[in-house]
Amino acid sequence: MDPLLLVLIVAGVSAAFCWITSLLTNETSWIDRLWSIVPVVYVWIFAGAALLAGLDATRLLVMAVLVTAWGVRLTFNFARKGGYTGMEDYRWAILRGRMTRWQFQVFNLLFIVLFQSALLVLISLPAYIAWQHPTPFTGWDAAFALLFAAFLVGETVADQQQWNFHRAKKAAGGTLEPGFVTTGLFAYSRHPNFFFEQAQWWAFYALGAVALVADGGGWLNWTIAGPALLTVLFIGSTVFTESISAAKYPAYRQYQRSTSMLVPLPRRGRRAPETA
């Protein structure tokens, strides 16, 4: 069996599960609970297929280990925030309040479930390219693997800094000026964790591209749709999230003016409000 077919079957089952459970429980964060799990399964399907076929699976094993590390880290961070205890993403609740019931259910099916399920397949498909082109592991592979790992460390640090701030905010009774974290990596990017998350999948795409180039192809291939759509999703989600933050915290507009949204850069103009 072509491993891509097996991946599509697993994706279809997981999408159906997310949609049905969202109807039964009237909350829509089920896809969030699978977000850090199913890409790991998909990449290991491709790696396992290469091993079973007796192909050179070095590149795919490296890709699978990297995505597994990504999944373990993200699952841990999601779990400690209560993601597996029935807590729904607050943004879905806000959107639900802005739509009629039938409008939100259409949005739930088409975007929350189907689009995001398809996206999780797409970001995994550089492993399919690597399976189709089992060329020897190269220095380029090592470089992009190290880059993926560096981005993973960056996201880990950013999430920990955000976690520390929210714990301090809770200990202070729920109020800690200016209301959001602005120190550490957040002094250079308003969402460094979002930046590093996207960057990891661009590095993952590059690993698949290396396999294709080594087999006589080019750097650009159709699986670029995965990281490209992920970036579009993150930009849209970030803009929506920031509209909520700006309405909630008076100092957030100043933070937006002084600090890059995603790519970590030196602050510009006036200093951002400092975290207490």
Automatic annotation (TrEMBL):
Pfam (any one): DUF1295
Keyword terms of this UniProt record: Membrane, Transmembrane, Transmembrane helix
Transmembrane segment boundaries: 34-55, 106-131, 137-158, 202-222, 228-247
Alphabetical list of InterPro entries matching this protein: UstE-like (IPR010721)
Source organism, top-level taxon: Bacteria
PANTHER family (UniProt xref): 3-OXO-5-ALPHA-STEROID 4-DEHYDROGENASE, 3-OXO-5-ALPHA-STEROID 4-DEHYDROGENASE (DUF1295)
Name of the featured protein: DUF1295 domain-containing protein
Species for this entry: Microbacterium arthrosphaerae
